[in-house]
Amino acid sequence: MNPVAKLLIIGGIVLVVIGLLWQIGGRFLPLGRLPGDIVVEKENMHFYFPVVTCIVISVLLSLASYLFKLFK
Questions:
Q1: What's the pTM?
Q2: Which contiguous run of DSSP H or E holds residue 18?
Q3: Cα(10)–Cα(16) distance, integer angstroms
Q4: Where are its TM segments located (predicted)?
């Protein structure tokens, strides 16, 4: 099988699994509504910047990358 096609298939499967986990896990881990996320609400404006959520996702992706390289 072509390596690019194989990579795209694996990437798609990984995205589907992440989406399912996010949908199911959102009930238990409120990503996007963590303490430290910046929310400013005024009459005509709503500003949201998920600082802590970005940090958590970055740490999880870094850990997954490290583990993938470790067991490769």
A1: 0.59
A2: helix 3-25
A3: 10
A4: 7-25, 45-68
Distance of CA 37 to CAs 5, 17, 18, 23, 55, Å?
38, 25, 22, 20, 10
Query: 20-58 burial, b for 16+ CB within 10 Å, e for fewer?
Result: eeeeeeeeeeebeeeeebeeeeeeeeeeeebebbeeeee
Burial of 68 (0-12, 13-18, 19+ CB in 10 A): exposed
In angstroms, rounded to a whole number, what is the distance separating the alpha carbons of residues 65 and 22? Answer: 18
